[in-house]
Amino acid sequence: MQETLVVVGAAVLRNGRVLAAQRARPEALRGRWEFPGGKARPGEAPEAALVRECREELGAHVRPLHQVGPDVPLTAVGPSAVLRLWTAELVEGDPRPLEHLALRWLSAGELHTVEWLPADLPFLAPVGAHLAPPAARSE
Ligand SMILES: Nc1nc2c([nH]c(=O)n2[C@H]2C[C@H](O)[C@@H](COP(=O)(O)OP(=O)(O)OP(=O)(O)O)O2)c(=O)[nH]1
Asked: Any idea where the Nudix hydrolase domain is (predicted)?
């Protein structure tokens, strides 16, 4: 049986917001938004891949907290590829876009304002539940 290729993603939370990253490459995905992460290497634990990828992409040390929802199939990446997401917290460093076009800290109200990669869409509701609710309007 073919081994599952796990693409790991980190929903890094800080002050009630989540970090979104804008892809630079490949051209077909340039400009779309995703969770920082990447492919786990053969034999590499997915959580270790998450920490490694965030260090490479953001120059920051993150700690995975909880897995979010079920895996999402990534048929464009491979027949048995999946996207697996964790919430994560920053342990050290201020994230910088070392490999992305831009980074944004999105509030609950901003979560749907960027153009996410399609596979990320099922994760937005459970991630949104971790964000601070929009401030109540005083009228
Ligand atoms: N990192 C990441 N990749 C995602 C997300 N959603 C999604 O569809 N993908 C897709 C885009 C890519 O086709 C694939 C991840 O590939 P990648 O290029 O980030 O992986 P990598 O850093 O290990 O790079 P490489 O070895 O292929 O060069 O998964 C997401 O939220 N985060």
From this structure: 3-131
